[in-house]
Amino acid sequence: MVDADPNSVLPSLLGVKPESSIVGIVEEISKKMDKIPAGMTKERYIEMRVQESLSEEEGFDLLVMGRPEGPGCYCYVNNLLRGIMSRVTKSYDFVIMDNAAGMEHISRRTMRSLDSLVLVSDYSAVGVRSAKRIYELAKELDIKMKGAYLAVNRITGDIVALGDDIKDSGLKLIGAIPFSEEVNSLSIADKPIFGLKDKSVRSEVGKIFNALMKG
Questions:
Q1: What digits encode the pLDDT tens for the residues 121-134?
Q2: Which of the chain's ends, N or C, has fewer CB atoms near its CB within 10 Å?
Q3: Can you name the residues that pair with 152 across neighbouring β-strands?
Q4: Residue 51 has what pLDDT?
Q5: Class of the CATH domain delimited by 2-214
Q6: Alpha-carbon distances of 33 from 38, 44, 45, rounded to whole Å
Q7: Mean pLDDT across the chain, nearest whole number?
Q8: Which parts of the chain fold into alpha helices (H)?
Q9: Is the pLDDT at 80 greater than 90, yes or no?
């Protein structure tokens, strides 16, 4: 699991408290250049520290990008993450990357090749149309993907109401997740999602993962 959102929320959802992030490591090393071992480049030392920072949990590992404490650009961190991802991901059968909402992460091209692009929209025409624009940008930037999908979240009505916008998006509808008071309560209580009992949500999310497995 890779949390590539500067506003990191994935660790909380997974019940993990990572000791460090890529940004934190980069900033620490930048302030203490004399601590880099002799004969090792800055880039190699950062990569080693980042690999050591992986949170190893039961069933998954977690890598967190984090955010700068002060003003600054994410360009270097994104380039670093891109290089690390190209090497680290070779050790895993499955990699899920959570990006920030919006189009900026696509522009940064953190991943230039992926099996499945899953865009998540809320239950609104505006959300589906936003997903369409992100998908179009991904194609313009020539990001290689075997499949592009749309998941609509927190549904409170009939998914048919968004039928025309979903069809126009060019994305394949892979899931329609109903609104859940339990999910909302877990979020408010800052509890991980693994304790979720809502069968309707668990079933729909299970269908999404099964569909992705089949490609």
A1: 999 999 999 999 99
A2: C
A3: 121, 176
A4: 84
A5: alpha beta
A6: 11, 13, 10
A7: 89
A8: 10-14, 22-31, 42-52, 75-88, 104-108, 125-140, 163-169, 181-188, 199-214
A9: no
